[in-house]
Amino acid sequence: MTDLGPVRARVIVQGRVQGVFYRDTCKHVARSFNIKGWIRNCSDGSVEAVFEGDPSAVEQMISWCRRGPDRAQVRDVIVTYESLIGENDFTVR
Question: Which CATH architecture best describes the domain 20-87?
Answer without folding.
Answer: 2-Layer Sandwich (3.30)
